[in-house]
Amino acid sequence: MATKEMNNRSAYHEYFIEDKWTAGIVLLGTEVKSIREGKVSFNDSFCLLHKNELWVRGLYIAEYSLGTTNNHIAVHDRKLLLTKRELKKIENRMKDKGYTIVPLRVFFNDKHLAKVEIGIGRGKKLYDKRETLKKKDTERDIKRFLK
After folding, report:
1. What is the SS3 assignment for 63?
2. pTM, to two decimals
3. Residue 141 pLDDT more than 80?
4. Residue 40: which region, alpha, beta or left (left: phi > 0; alpha: psi -120 to 50)?
5. Looking at the DSSP assignment, which residues form a beta bridge with residue 115?
6. Which CA distances in Å does 139 have to 55, 109, 128, 132, 145?
7. CA-to-CA distance for 85 and 89, rounded, in angstroms?
8. Cα separation, 120 vs 82, whole angstroms
9. Cβ atoms within 10 Å, residue 11
10. Percent of the chain with pLDDT over 90
């Protein structure tokens, strides 16, 4: 059984990711089955702290194709599971202006549990995005030339 890993490629384009954490996520059974099929979209998803809990908002997990009337809602707030120490570190980092908590990828760990990798990032300006694209292009050209 090949496990799929869904990455949020636009997060690396929009933000300078400084710190990363791996968090558990509270899911329903049909949500887990949809994630195994790779039906996840990170469009407009972000994380927020509310009453010392971390929530991911806007994460789209498609309804399970073989689900019955008990199927889940595609977009709703999902609780992320972190230790109190990790939540305190994140809360302290969020006091600085300009930082955002972004989900970076959804994956299954060795114990077949669904996990979300989150990162704290500072937003990029337009010229930063152009600079990143230039670096990627030059690295790709160098690799192509060395082959």
Report:
1. coil
2. 0.80
3. yes
4. beta
5. 24, 107
6. 36, 31, 17, 11, 10
7. 6
8. 14
9. 20
10. 34
Encoded amino acid at 116, one letter: V
Task: Summarize pLDDT for 64-120 with one digit per residue, the tens.
Answer: 877 777 777 778 889 999 999 999 998 888 888 888 899 999 999 999 899 999 999
- What phi, psi does 88 have (nearest 5°)? -65, -40
- List of residues 6+ apart from 43 with CB closer than 8 A: 10, 58, 60
Six-digit token pair at 97?
């202006």
Burial level of 111, CB count in 10 A (0-12/13-18/19+)?
A: exposed
SS3 116: strand
pLDDT of residue 3: 56
Predicted confidence at residue 1, as pLDDT, reads 45
Placement of tokens 């384009």 in the chain: 13
* φ, ψ for residue 78, nearest 5 deg: -125, 135
Contact 101, 47 (CB under 8 A): yes
